[in-house]
Design brief:
This protein is of the alpha+beta class and about 375 residues long. The protein contains 14 helices and 16 strands. A nine-stranded mixed beta sheet has the order 1-5-6-12-11-10-7-9-8. A four-stranded mixed beta sheet has the order 14-13-15-16. A three-stranded antiparallel beta sheet has the order 2-4-3. α13 links the parallel β13 and β14. About 35% of the residues are buried.
Length: about 375
Amino acid sequence: MSANDNDHRGLLPAGLADLLPPDATREARAIDVAIERFAAFGYERVKPPLVEFEESLLGGPGAALAPQTFRLMDPVSQRMMGVRPDMTVQVARIAVTRLKHEPRPLRLSYGGNVIRVRGSALKPERQFAQVGTELIGVDTAEADAEAVLLAVDTLRAIGVTELTVDLNLPTLVAAVAAGLKQPADSLRRLRRALDRKDEGGIAKAATDKKVADLFAGLLRAAGPADRGLATLGKLKLPAAAAAEAARLAEVVKLVHAAEPDLPLTIDPVEYRGLEYQTGVSFSVFALKGREELARGGRYSAGYPEDGVSEPATGFTVYMDAVLSASEAPPERPRLYVPSGVAWSEAAPWQAKGYAVVRAVVAAPEPRDEAKRLRCSHALIDGEAVPL
């Protein structure tokens, strides 16, 4: 085989990539930091399998991710399985089955890789690492606020300090439409107009001017949280929709009390990418970029179609986005140790922060060999000599 032929073995399918040094180390450390922050707030880690039976993986909230799920036949059971496109649905399954007798609220955390059938224009990667938490068994504003605040705490611990949070109510538009008895066709056209931020389209889609004015008011509520909530408060929303808006206001109040300087925005008509959320949802961004770092919100954990579900909220941190938004920590200095040095002598240098690179092939000139192996120091006469 020629060298050129072998180069082709390094090619990977679109959306998949090798993570090389030092990025693989950065990601692993960031995941460890996140899991430790979760543990510090009482979240216990679970580890679901990479693949599981299709009906479990795609039941309940997982149905929204069915088009993004790779399928394969299990040669043992002859049943269809899916490769997880998201870990939230797996943690929810664990909660309502294996941990159904544990006291609520149940706090669980997770970390691992997921893979999806296709990427998006904004996120072309198809495989990426997720870490996150789920708070299962309660439906309160305090739980919603905890998810937001823990996501912010975790991102700061990893090294992304200047953050902003965008809060959403993905079921609000449907609740308003139901309360105003808008037909399904009108709702579809209203959603398209809202997605385009098109007030003229809203007027054409609504059944009358009163309805159009109300949906235009929802659209105008997008922006800084305090101003947006004031706009929502002036609208005559149907009872169910008004309750959702009140819940959002309560969550904003709780988050502001804990983090008065954290920028908060709301977009009450946004729902794309939040299809299985059932209440207050949120995305976290870095102020210096618009790539989504974390996403979360309220949903039904389990399988509502079987009558087995619990209220839940949580969030997922997208590690690839986090690493691109955070500064790389300084690399550990590498100390070249020539052959003949006792293995036990590595420990004191490691305790000082060095990565010890032992010679496994004799080299006539330690300095040259150390440089070739990308070491910053060489052990010469018992001293770590910088190169």
